[in-house]
Amino acid sequence: MIRSAIEAMHNAYCPYSNFKVGASALLKDGTIVVGTNIENASYGLSMCAERACLYNVYSKGYRKNDIISFCVAAKKIVTPCGACRQVMIELMNPDTLVVLTDSLGHSKEYQVKDLLPDSFKLEV
Asked: H or E segment at 58?
């Protein structure tokens, strides 16, 4: 899964920040789904790797109960932005393992709920 996120990182389109990010989700059936960051001159239209990956997971018909773990890779270990954390808390189980790694394979582990404590969420 870490290798898949690092490979996805190399597919980033980031001419403005030059900061490549890749993400991968490991699903219960063994499938790995990836995403990468895609920037745009109109910055608001850019997409982070984490959201690209999760939207890819959902567009393939998988849901939060299918996601076993999630990995974010960049040249250095970074946590997801606030927008990605909000999407993660809604589209993933709060106990899902999130591995943050750098391009050399050093990593830190969190659970989704630890990345956005006291989050805004739909109460059903």
From this structure: helix 49-59
- Contact at 8 Å (CB) between 101 and 107? yes
- Alpha carbons 102 and 7: distance in angstroms, whole number: 12
Radius of gyration of the chain (CA): 13
Among this protein's residues, is 50 annotated catalytic?
Answer: yes
The token pair at 80 is 């997801």
User: Of 28, 30, 36, 29, whose CA–CA distance to 7 is shortest?
Assistant: 36
Domains present along the chain, CATH in parentheses: 2-115 (3.40.140.10)
Find tokens 């954390």 and name the residue.
Answer: 85
Report pLDDT for 120: 81
| Residue tagged active-site, from 7, 39, 50, 123 | 50
| pLDDT value of residue 119 | 84
Pairing of strands 67-74, 21-27: antiparallel
Give the pTM: 0.94
